[in-house]
Amino acid sequence: MTILRTCTALACVAAAASARQLPIVVDDYVPAVPVKAPASYNGTNGTTIDTKKLQADIDINKLFARAEELAKIADLGIPEYNHPTRVIGSKGHVGTVDYIYSEINKLGDYYNISNQTFPAVTGSVSESRLVIGYDVPKSASPMSLTPATKQHEPVYGQLLLVPNGGCSASDFPVNMTGAIAFIKRGTCSFGDKSANAGRAGADAAVIFNNVAGELSGTLGTPSPDHVATFGISLEEATPYVDMLHNGTKIDSIVYIDALVEEIMTTNIIAQTTAGDPENCVMLGGHSDSVAAGPGINDDGSGTISLIEVATQLTKYEVNNCVRFAWWAGEEEGLLGSYYYSQNLSPAENQKIRLFMDYDMMSSVNFAYQIYNATNEDNPLGSGELRILYEDWYKEQGLNYTYIDFDGRSDYAGFLDAGIPSGGIATGAEGIKTAEEARIFGGEAGAWYDPCYHQLCDDIHNLNATAWEVNTKLIAHSVATYAKSFDGFPKRVAGVEERGLKRREKKTPMFKYKGNDLVM
Ligand SMILES: *[C@@H]1O[C@H](CO)[C@@H](O)[C@H](O)[C@H]1NC(C)=O
Ligand SMILES: *[C@@H]1O[C@H](CO)[C@@H](O)[C@H](O)[C@H]1NC(C)=O
Ligand SMILES: *[C@@H]1O[C@H](CO)[C@@H](O)[C@H](O)[C@H]1NC(C)=O
Ligand SMILES: *[C@@H]1O[C@H](CO)[C@@H](O)[C@H](O)[C@H]1NC(C)=O
Ligand SMILES: *[C@@H]1O[C@H](CO)[C@@H](O)[C@H](O)[C@H]1NC(C)=O
Ligand SMILES: *[C@@H]1O[C@H](CO)[C@@H](O)[C@H](O)[C@H]1NC(C)=O
Ligand SMILES: *[C@@H]1O[C@H](CO)[C@@H](O)[C@H](O)[C@H]1NC(C)=O
Ligand SMILES: *[C@@H]1O[C@H](CO)[C@@H](O)[C@H](O)[C@H]1NC(C)=O
Ligand SMILES: *[C@@H]1O[C@H](CO)[C@@H](O)[C@H](O)[C@H]1NC(C)=O
Ligand SMILES: [Zn+2]
C-alpha cells in the first residue's frame, strides 16, 4: 500500500480532525498577485540577479551567527522537555517560526509572507511491554502514533497468526475477540494492518519483519480502528510462527501507554513581490526538529541557509518569482509540505515550475548527496534540476553521490502533486563507505550525522565546509531559475501528471513518510 492510497497528509489531518471535531483554522495560502509596490521600494536596486554575485554574498560567519540564535531558541523547549528541542508544539518551535517570520519581515516589501496554519498529529509512548509466551522479545518496538492498550492497562490474549499479511478483512480468523494479531510485514501499510486487526476484534497487534532485522515504523494517520501495535524482528518472530503453524497455543501480554494528540502548527511561506508570479521557483526546508534534541543540523542548517539566501537575494532584481517555504511537522511525517502541496488549486499548482528540498546541509561526516531525481521516474524537470546540481559540483571540482528519492523529506508531496522536484543533502544515519571517505574525506564506517535525531544535534554538530558549499549551491539554484527558465521543461498544463510515472510502473510511491517507515 502506498502513502497515496493510505492517506495523504491532507486527507489524514482532515480525517483526524473531523473524527475529533477539532476546529480547523486554516489561514490558506493565497499567492501574491502582482500589485504596485510602495514608492519607497521598487522591488530592486537595479542590479539584475546573477548567480556568481549571489554565491559571493554567502558568508559562513553569518550562517553560524544564525545557528547560535537558533540554539538559544531551542532552549525555550527546556522547561517542558528537560532539554533543548524545536519539535512541533514546543516553545522552541514557536520561537523558530517567530524567528523566521521576523527575519523575512525585516526585508520589507521585497517579500510577501504568509502563515499557513494546519492541524498536526503527534504521538508519544510513555511505557510499553511485550511478552510472548514466556519471552520478552528484545527487538519489540511500539509503532509511532500507536494508540494505548485499553484503559492504558496491559491486555492478555492468545497470539493468533494472521495469514496473508492482514491486508484485507478476510485474512483474519473469524473470531479475534480478545486475541493479539500476529502479522507479517508487507503489501500494505502498518496502519492498514493495525486497523484491520482492530476491526476483526483484536486487542493488539504485533507486526513482524519480512526481512532480516528489527522493525520500527509508524501507523501513520490515526484511525479509530487502530489497536496498540508493536514491531519485532524476523529473527525473534520465526520460532513463534513455527509453533503457531504447529498448532501450539501461545499466550501474550501487550502493554502500551501512549498519547496521540492534535495540535495546530504553521508553515511560513515568503514570495518575492517582484518577478513573474505565473512562473515560480520554490524551495523549502523544515522549521521543526524531533523531540529528542535541538535539530541544529536537521534542519536548522537548511532553515538558516534559506533565511540567508532570502536575505541576500534582496540586493537583486528577479525575473521569476521566488517562493521560500519553512515547513512544520516534517518529523511527524512531512505534514506541512503535504498540507501545502495537496491544498494547491490546479491553477496554483501550475505556477510552481519546480520545488527544491534543502534538508540537512551541514552533517559533520558529510557526503555531497544529490537526490536521484530522474525524469524517468519523476515529473519532467526533476532530471534537469539534478543536472544543475551535478554541473555545479563539477565546476567547483567537488565529488558527489546520488541518494534514493524515496520519500524521506518534503519533496514527496510535490512529486505526488506532479511538480518537478529534487534537492541535495549531506547524510543522516547512513554509514559512510570507504569509497565515500576517499572522495569526501571524513570517517568511513561512521554515520554521516553522528547526532542524527539526538540531543547532540546542537551548535557543534555542523561542518562549516559543507554548509558554506551547499548554501552557495542553494544560492546558485535560486539565482539560476529566478533569472530564467530557458531550457527548463514547461509544466504540462491541464494534465493530471501527478505521480503518473510511478503509478504507471505500479511501484509503491514511497516506502517512507519522512523518517518513518510506513510499510
Ligand atoms: C501578498 O499576499 C496576500 C495574500 O497572501 C495578497 O492578498 C497580497 O496581495 C499580496 N501582496 C503582494 C504585494 O503581492
Ligand atoms: C529601482 O530603483 C533603483 C535604485 O533606486 C533604480 O536604479 C532602478 O532603475 C529602479 N527600477 C525600476 C524598475 O524602476
Ligand atoms: C504569522 O506568524 C508570525 C510568526 O509567528 C506572527 O508574528 C504573525 O503575527 C502571524 N501573522 C498572521 C497574519 O497571523
Ligand atoms: C469470540 O471469542 C471470545 C473469547 O474467546 C468469546 O467470548 C466470544 O463469545 C466469541 N465470539 C464468537 C462470535 O464466537
Ligand atoms: C512441530 O511439530 C512437529 C511434530 O509434532 C515437531 O516434530 C516439531 O518439533 C514442532 N516444531 C516446533 C517449532 O514446535
Ligand atoms: C544593490 O546590490 C548591490 C550588489 O549586490 C549591493 O552592493 C548594494 O549594496 C545594493 N544596494 C542596496 C541599496 O541594497
Ligand atoms: C537513479 O534512478 C534511475 C531510475 O530513475 C536508475 O536507473 C539509476 O540506477 C539510479 N541511480 C542511482 C545511482 O541510484
Ligand atoms: C574527489 O575524489 C577523488 C578520488 O576519486 C580524490 O582524489 C579527490 O581528492 C576528490 N576531490 C575532492 C575535492 O575531495
Ligand atoms: C569539515 O569537514 C572537512 C572535510 O572532511 C574537514 O577537513 C574539516 O575539518 C571539518 N570541519 C569541522 C569544523 O569539523
Ligand atoms: Zn530533516
UniProtKB/TrEMBL annotation:
Requisite cofactors: Zn(2+)
Keywords: Aminopeptidase, Hydrolase, Metal-binding, Protease, Signal, Zinc
EC assignment: 3.4.-.-
Class of enzymatic activity (EC top level): hydrolase
A Pfam cross-reference name: PA
Gene3D superfamilies: 3.50.30.30, Zn peptidases
Gene Ontology biological process terms from the UniProt entry: proteolysis
All residue ranges annotated as the Peptidase M28 domain in the record: 267-476
Signal peptide: 1-19
CDD domains assigned to the protein according to its UniProt record, in alphabetical order: M28_SGAP_like, PA_ScAPY_like
Every PA domain range: 157-237
Keyword 4Fe-4S appears in the UniProt entry: no
GO terms for MF: aminopeptidase activity; metal ion binding; metalloexopeptidase activity
Family to which this protein belongs: Belongs to the peptidase M28 family. M28A subfamily.
Protein name: Peptide hydrolase
Organism this protein belongs to: Aureobasidium subglaciale (strain EXF-2481) (Aureobasidium pullulans var. subglaciale)
